[in-house]
Amino acid sequence: MNIHTPMDRLLGGVNIVLLIFVTLAMLFPFYYMVIVSFTSYDEFVTKDLLLFPERWVTDAYTFILGTKTFFRSILVTIFVTVVGTLLSLLLTTMMAYALTRNITGQRVFLFMVLFTFVFGAGIIPTYMVVRETQILDTYWALIIPTAINSFNLIVMRQFFLSIPKDLTEASVIDGANDLQIFGRIIVPLSKPALAAFGLFYAVTNWNTYFNALLYISDPAKWTVQVVLRQIVILDQASSLSDGAQMALGQNPPPAETIGMAAVLIATIPILIVYPFLQKHFAKGVMLGSVKE
């Protein structure tokens, strides 16, 4: 029987208050982003801190949705995210499974993975590799260099090692080869892990910024994060108009409101996808941490 003392109740109340405070502190930037994106130009320039707009306007969204540049960057980012995530999951799971088998040079390959996990190649050597492989200024430059994450690979390998060997040994007796075991046994049992690491890879690819800035020189192939940089940091919202200014019939909204609206639009896809993966994600993040 649990007996809660007054001190326990006091500490519990303090923890609840602290958690509520931390939650509000984390949600406030998102709230402020929404408020600013729907604020009029006059109200934005006259008030130092906006907590609730007096008049809700959609000028920033009209401006963004009237541009071709932002839509093109969204499509580019969706392509990089979908293809990059699928390729990363395929390569990560196949290599992780291979490192669980008794193959020649297994320790050497595992050491190479651990070495890249501790020591990175650096910006210049990586750029030279991308250039020499002739994928510079292509979408593959945003996908291939980050296709496999060493940490995800190691955790995925540990998860595969936690799968009972009786399943794979019985399949071998039945005449199944490694590819059949991987496709019919390992992958179906790895759905929680695939959901967790798929979300990790998807968020990484969706937020691709530095690699796009480094490897892509064609503005038509910029990701949405690079376009947001043009809007927020360089204050070049007017260069993205493509007729949106004429649609408004006035000067474009401030770059700050356009930036907030663009960030909100770019964040919505991840927020939509996450609830569908949450069931597997909560379980998958712990898989492979302890070998059964």
Automatic annotation (TrEMBL):
<dbReference type="InterPro" id="IPR035906">
    <property type="entry name" value="MetI-like_sf"/>
</dbReference>
<feature type="transmembrane region" description="Helical">
    <location>
        <begin position="139"/>
        <end position="160"/>
    </location>
</feature>
<comment type="similarity">
    <text>Belongs to the binding-protein-dependent transport system permease family.</text>
</comment>
<feature type="transmembrane region" description="Helical">
    <location>
        <begin position="74"/>
        <end position="96"/>
    </location>
</feature>
<dbReference type="Pfam" id="PF00528">
    <property type="entry name" value="BPD_transp_1"/>
</dbReference>
<keyword id="KW-0812">Transmembrane</keyword>
<feature type="transmembrane region" description="Helical">
    <location>
        <begin position="108"/>
        <end position="127"/>
    </location>
</feature>
<protein>
    <submittedName>
        <fullName>Carbohydrate ABC transporter permease</fullName>
    </submittedName>
</protein>
<keyword id="KW-0813">Transport</keyword>
<feature type="transmembrane region" description="Helical">
    <location>
        <begin position="12"/>
        <end position="34"/>
    </location>
</feature>
<keyword id="KW-1133">Transmembrane helix</keyword>
<feature type="domain" description="ABC transmembrane type-1">
    <location>
        <begin position="74"/>
        <end position="277"/>
    </location>
</feature>
<keyword id="KW-0472">Membrane</keyword>
<feature type="transmembrane region" description="Helical">
    <location>
        <begin position="181"/>
        <end position="203"/>
    </location>
</feature>
<keyword id="KW-1003">Cell membrane</keyword>
<feature type="transmembrane region" description="Helical">
    <location>
        <begin position="258"/>
        <end position="277"/>
    </location>
</feature>
<dbReference type="InterPro" id="IPR000515">
    <property type="entry name" value="MetI-like"/>
</dbReference>
